[in-house]
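Chapter review. Work through the record for TolC family protein before attempting the end-of-chapter questions.
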Amino acid sequence: MRVPRRVLLSLCLCLGTPGALAQEVPVRLRAASGERARQAAQVGLRLRENEEAARIEEAAREDVARLLSRGMENPGPETAQDVPPLPDRDRRRLEQELVTLDARVSARAAQRARWLLAAGLEVDPVLRRLPGEPPEPWLADVTLDADALLARVHDASRRELVRAYVREHAGLQARLATLEALVTVQGEALARARGGLVEGLAPLEDVLALQRANLSLKLEVLALRVRREQGVRELAALLECTPESVVVAGTR
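Structure tokens for TolC family protein:
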């Protein structure tokens, strides 16, 4: 059967010339590969945020558990004298707080399992660390040099985007420095309050209020670190390079 010329012409216009098609295929494959790499990096970043948030909440849970067990460890005459037992109302309040924190930790684990399942992963390919090990340093914890990064870009609109990312990064760095210092101060206040509770000089609700504020502040710091990391990854996509290249080229 002969195919009408107009049909052949239409097919050629849709497909392009053989040479153009041969050049386009590798371009599409590279774009698809790059997109898969960015998606994998995004999953890894979400998993890291989940893991570190769980560490923070587990530490808060352990603090409450220690308060709840006060006076029950190493029992003896000197313990009974130095560490008075908790009033029943305080014990019940701590048990409630423990249940709340248990639920938060369990929710993090369930969320993590859902993300791994959605990504088709049985194990985490990014966070290959033993339980209890500290997380790796954040990639984006540097000061970026706008001039070094702008030297890679010639398009005016993209240069303005680079400047915007560098400004945002600098703002996040400044905000993080402030909050990280506040975490230290607030942690010391919480330690003093816990000591006051043991001595019967501070009410339990004051201690729990400080603990909740400390937990919230640490999670806010984590969220800012994640946003800073994400910004570097977005900047890398804009510059068509790796995030590591952005950090090396832009560090001053």
